[in-house]
Write a structure and sequence with these properties.
- The chain has 270 residues and is α/β, with parallel strands linked by helices.
- The protein has a single domain, classed as Rossmann fold (3-Layer(aba) Sandwich), CATH 3.40.50.10320.
- Helix content is 37%, strand content 16%.
- The chain contains 8 helices and 7 strands.
- Helix 2 crosses helix 7.
- It starts with 24 loop residues before the first helix and ends in a 10-residue tail after the last strand.
- 46% of the residues are buried.
- Pfam families: PIG-L.
- This is LmbE family N-acetylglucosaminyl deacetylase.
- GO terms for molecular function: hydrolase activity, acting on carbon-nitrogen (but not peptide) bonds, in linear amides.
- InterPro entries: GlcNAc_PI_deacetylase-related, LmbE-like_dom_sf.
């Protein structure tokens, strides 16, 4: 793994996994000069489960965050009698409400088929377009690897989303010869600096972000996805307990696989 530009934990390649404990998102943003973050999810609520506390802390610190959902999530939900089109409308409204809770103004919805996302060249091109529009320093995405410790994290759509985002992040977004129609529209190639991957296999986790104080904001964002929670109290209890376990010292944290795509000493192809 490439070494982070600034070591947040006092030594080693794993920011936040060593040293005194989880890292404050505002500190991470300051250390790495983050002004723009782009977060991807396969379905509405994916980003909120994985990173809502961190996103809320980023926006509070003045970082602009954009959300992009690959599907409308029309194959989800537990209420009988709703067709796919109605479910898609409901879930879009839920996601926009959740985003507002986190201080996020922009939500982009793509039109992939819920349950059948695949990292095709077409989808990668759509993601490259959005990346070149937003030009973030940091991209948040589900992990492309399966997590055997909790298989529910590894919905096929999540892994396909992660694979498409990673492919877009390198090499396509920075290759001026890839997707030439984008360059013709003025969407020039640029380099993504970092990835922060949710739903990671436990052995890949190398970053914990301290979101103590944002846990209630995260719960409010998750509650906005009302159609997905037949037992909201059980969901909240599970998520809060998991965040306490990740923190390990009486607070709340979220965990990620942090990857540096382009550091100051990175040579293309190596």
């Amino acid at each position: 793994m490439a070494r982070p530009e600034s070591d947040l934990s006092g030594g080693g390649d794993d920011p936040g996994s060593q040293g005194s404990g989880p890292v404050a998102p505002a500190r991470l943003a300051a250390e790495h000069g983050l002004s723009s973050v782009l977060a991807f999810g396969a379905h509405p609520d994916d980003i909120d489960f994985g990173a809502a506390g961190s996103i809320a802390a980023f926006t509070e610190a003045g970082v602009a965050v954009t959300l992009c959902l690959l599907t409308a999530g029309d194959a989800g939900g537990f209420e009988p009698g709703r067709d796919a089109a109605e479910m898609a409308r409901v879930r879009e409204a839920e996601q926009r409400q959740a985003a507002a809770v986190l201080g996020v103004d922009r939500v982009i919805l793509l039109d992939e088929r819920d349950g059948f996302v695949a990292p095709t060249a077409e989808l990668v091109g759509k993601i490259v377009r959005i990346m070149r529009e937003v030009r973030p320093e940091l991209v948040i995405s589900p992990h492309p690897e399966r997590a055997w410790d909790r298989l529910q994290k590894s919905h096929p759509d999540h892994m396909a989303c992660g694979e498409a985002v990673v492919r877009a992040s390198y090499p396509y977004v920075e290759n001026p010869f890839a997707y030439p129609e984008l360059a013709a529209e003025g969407l020039e190639a640029f380099k993504i600096r970092h990835l922060m991957l949710t739903t990671a296999p436990q052995e890949r986790v190398n970053l914990r972000l301290d979101v103590t104080g944002q846990e209630s904001v995260k719960m409010s964002a998750l509650r906005a996805h009302f159609s997905q929670h037949p037992d909201a109290a059980r969901m909240e209890g599970y998520v809060l307990e998991k965040m306490r376990q990740i923190h390990g010292a009486g607070g709340y944290a979220e965990e990620f696989h942090w990857v540096t795509v382009n550091a100051p000493d990175t040579i293309s192809g190596f």
